[in-house]
Amino acid sequence: MTGVFDAAVIGAGAAGMMAAAQAGQRGLRVVLLDHAEKLGEKIRISGGGRCNFTNIGTTPANFFSQNPNFCRSALAAYTPRDFIGLVERHGISWHEKHRGQLFCDDSSESIIAMLRRECDAGKVAWRMACTIKSLTRQADDFRLDTSQGEIRARQVVLATGGMAIPQLGATDFALGMARQFGLKVVEPRPALVPLTFDAQQWAPFGLLSGIALEAAVRCGSGKSRTEFLEDLLFTHRGLSGPAILQISSYWNPGEAIMLDLAPGKRLGDEWVAGKSGNRQALVSVLAALWSRRLAEQWLASEPGQDGTALGAMRLADMPDKTLRGLAERIHNWTLHPTGTAGYKKAEVMRGGVDTRGIDQKTMQTKSVPGLYFVGEALDVTGWLGGYNFQWAWASGAACGRSLHKAA
Description:
Layout: E1 3-10, H1 14-24, E2 30-33, H2 41-45, E3 52-55, E4 63-64, H3 72-77, H4 80-89, E5 94-96, E6 101-104, H5 109-121, E7 125-127, E8 132-138, E9 141-146, E10 149-158, H6 173-180, E11 185-191, E12 195-196, H7 199-206, E13 212-219, E14 226-234, E15 238-240, H8 242-248, E16 257-260, H9 267-274, H10 282-287, H11 292-300, H12 320-331, E17 333-335, E18 339-340, E19 348-353, E20 371-373, E21 381-382, H13 387-402
Parallel strand pairs: 1-2, 1-10, 2-7, 10-20
Antiparallel strand pairs: 3-6, 4-21, 5-6, 8-9, 9-10, 11-19, 12-15, 12-18, 13-14, 13-16, 14-15, 16-17
């Protein structure tokens, strides 16, 4: 049996449900399709199960894209305060954590249920689990051949996201559809993802797996230099933690990253000025900054003097030049990642549909009238901390508000 709709939204994630709800509540006949059996799996696991649903400090500067101004219009039209208002109208309690990040007090299930109620309020038709066999354009309509029969729609919204977390069903479906309709795609890569290193070279630091500390991490130079001050985490294969996840969106293969493991300090000056009469062993001095395991491992790779391990030497006995050299290496630890932990460990995808072919106010493609892309499928990648959800809400709202009823 053929279903006829004003709009078909493919992908029942954050952006897709927002777009469907907005359009349905404006009186459009909307169908929402997803190949998954369970609704909103990525929402469900986000924020440790409490859904970091937005960040009150969201600005366009919190997003990475080859077309950085593209996100401005949608973010201005649907702000974090707009989504907070929706959350509160549904009686969902929330709290603010680190750096403007907002979480549900109870469970991310509250956000999924809210979005479902919003869609139901717009009389959105659900098709789950429903796979799309083909999507074609015929005259003024789009034809969707699905596992639940043929669907005709005047407009189609691609909201299937990116390739991050394939174990939850993520695919490159949206990118395939973009290419099918002649749109350009910015090379996709894992983002907000741990970085990995050569196994042999990393082996000494792999022993530190589980140790975390605050660090400043940067890559690039000049106008392209990017830096984050967050916690980093040592792992068996490399580095993770918020600082590394953030910088991973900006890091390109072959580039170095630089770490300051004592941000805000000037260790060389401090040690030289305070060494007189200081009988502390250097390992104890470093252990006051870091965990003792990290201090010991770091100093094990440093050259000693006269056969004496550097860590065993007293601060008072060390030459100024040696102390300043050690401090410089701590403040500017240069590493060359060999890769990332891949899409299985990535929180989002970098790259996607080239936004230079998309209308920034409506999310409609410029070359194919009636075809829209929203959310992670687009080349707009947010920082860690609720920004990608805000992009989902904003782009979904922009699209849902611009969809129109068939004449």
